[in-house]
Amino acid sequence: MPTALVVIPTYNERANLAAIVGRVRAAVAEIHVLVVDDNSPDGTGAIADELASDPYVTVLHRPGKSGLGSAYLAGFANALDRGFDYVLEFDADGSHQPEELPKMLAALDAGADLAIGTRWMPGGLVENWPLRRRMLSRGATLFARVMLRSRLRDITSGYRGFRAATLVAANYESLVSQGYCFQIELAWRVERAGLSITEVPITFIERVNGRSKMSVAIVVEAMRSVFVWGIADRFGRKTGSQAIMR
Question: Which of 195, 5, 222, 204 has the alpha carbon at shortest distance from 117?
Fold first, then answer.
């Protein structure tokens, strides 16, 4: 049976972490959890250490806030070093539902190299988002799809499952983006490599506790990178990012 590790980056998620880890562990028998904490000033790291009394939970402490992308890169490296077959991305804020992990794992078991939890497809839902947030997300997704000529309906989604070999094939260690941009860059690499991607409908629920790290500035930065990649791809030019695979 394939082994699976869920990577959960954290920064100031004290109010959410214990419940999320508990739900993940209840959702799938023998699934492992890695909490990657960026020295959260609210004590999230200490809670993670308490949760690590469960042998299926481990913690990676980093010295400071270095961004979502680098947190996932550290988690991916940890997963590959420990020999896990599947590596999953998961938010700590309650927006991703642990109870949907079996669907993600089933897609990987069925042969997908990458499973993406998709909000914008039949069966997918978004709850408790204002119209402005929905329009921002849908607009950013549409822009990325057009510029990158992607077929993915939710290329910005952060609920994902990878085969370990997929991360290696995508040369994950050379990724340089963060946040929205990190998710776009990595999914595009997998898509450009011709690997199998399955989109799985999920329910996304806006966080109840804590503050979102998302901002208009983060989205604008991501769209700027997407524009550069898309233009460079059309004209066969190299950019500072190694996302364009030949």
Answer: 204
* Average pLDDT, integer, range 35-55: 97
**Is 3.30.9.10 the CATH classification of the domain at 4-235?**
no
- Contact call for residues 115 and 104 (beta carbons, < 8 A): yes
d(CA 58, CA 35): 6
Q: How far apart are CA 25 and CA 174, in angstroms?
A: 31
β strands within 166-212, DSSP E: 197-201, 203-205
Cβ burial of 204 (10 Å; 0-12, 13-18, 19+) is buried
Tokens at residue 175, please? 């990724």
Q: Residues 219-233: pLDDT tens digits?
A: 677 778 888 888 988
Could you state, in order of their start, the residue ranges of all structural domains in the chain?
A: 4-235
Query: What pLDDT sits at residue 225?
Result: 85
* Sequence-separated (6 or more) residues with CB below 8 Å from residue 50: 18
Q: What is the pTM of this model?
A: 0.89
Burial class from Cβ neighbours inside 10 Å (0-12, 13-18, 19+) for residue 118 reads buried
Specify the pLDDT at position 216: 64
Backbone angles phi, psi at 34, to 5 degrees: -120, 115
Backbone angles phi, psi at 5, to 5 degrees: -125, 130
Please return the burial class of 126, using the count of CB atoms within 10 Å of its CB with bins 0-12, 13-18 and 19+. middle
